[in-house]
Amino acid sequence: MPRIESANGLPLATYRARFLPSCLDPTSPNARAQGPYSISFDSSSSIRAAELEACLELIASSSAKAYAASGIGWSVVKKRKEMKLPDLRYLLLKNATDRIQGLLSFMLTYEDGHEVVYCYELHLSPSAQRQGIGKHLMGLVETVGKSAGVEKSMLTVFTENETALMFYERLGYSRDDYSPQPRKMRNGTVKMPTHLILSKSLQGPSTDGKELEGDEAA
């Protein structure tokens, strides 16, 4: 069986044991001081309905306007349907009272013929930002990709989200060859893309860049 299909077919516990470290919780001094925080691992079929809705609310509060302003558009119904894709996995950040404070959803998949780990969403509540948690979550996803043997890590980011672009660039991400390009219209004006596709090779030496102070990602 192909590598991607084999990995996505694993039971949740086996998937975690094979591709993730035993401890998922953030360990930066700031996260420990502001927390305590814990990170749980779920799939689209195992995540509790209330937690899925909490994640949806967090996505809407931070990105609904950007979705609406882009060519993608914002739809709660469509986003909820996407969040239930069979092969989607979740890293859920929770505080001491077990409330959702952040999420990263991702999938081992194919993109333009390449085996990749694709980050679908990364969102943190304001109280969980600037503590190194965003970098920690991205590191976990990259660990999944490296453990699974895929070529690269990929994600989509809105061009207007300059903070997120800087965040990902400092983690070693750059514009992918398949990212949307500016388009020249018939009247001569140039229409810039509303979103970019970024990627980072997971083969060879790490290119994490400098230590980050912020986590305000897309």
Walk me through what this model shows.
The chain is 33% helix and 25% strand. With 218 residues, it is of the alpha+beta class. Strand 3 and strand 4 form a beta hairpin.
Termini, distance in Å?
A: 34 Å
Outline the biggest β-sheet: 7 strands, mixed
**How do the strands line up in the largest sheet?**
1-2-3-4-5-9-6
Low-confidence regions: 206-214
Strand content: 25-35%
Shape assignment: globular
Helix content: 25-40%
Average pLDDT rating: 90
Instruction: Label the structural class.
Output: alpha+beta
Rg measurement, Å: 17 Å
What is the N-to-C order of secondary-structure elements (H for helix, E for strand)? HHHEHHEEEHEHEEEE
The helix count comes to: 7
Task: State the gist of this model.
This protein has 218 residues and is α+β, with helices and mostly antiparallel strands. The protein has seven helices and nine strands, in the order H-H-H-E-H-H-E-E-E-H-E-H-E-E-E-E. It has helices at 3-8, 12-19, 29-34, 49-69, 76-82, 133-148, 162-170, and strands spanning 38-43, 89-94, 100-111, 114-124, 152-158, 174-175, 183-184, 190-191, 195-201.
Helices, strands, pairings?
Blueprint: H1 3-8, H2 12-19, H3 29-34, E1 38-43, H4 49-69, H5 76-82, E2 89-94, E3 100-111, E4 114-124, H6 133-148, E5 152-158, H7 162-170, E6 174-175, E7 183-184, E8 190-191, E9 195-201
Parallel strand pairs: 4-5
Antiparallel strand pairs: 1-2, 2-3, 3-4, 5-9, 6-9, 7-8
Keywords:
218 residues; alpha+beta; 33% helix; 25% strand; 7 helices; two-stranded antiparallel sheet; seven-stranded mixed sheet
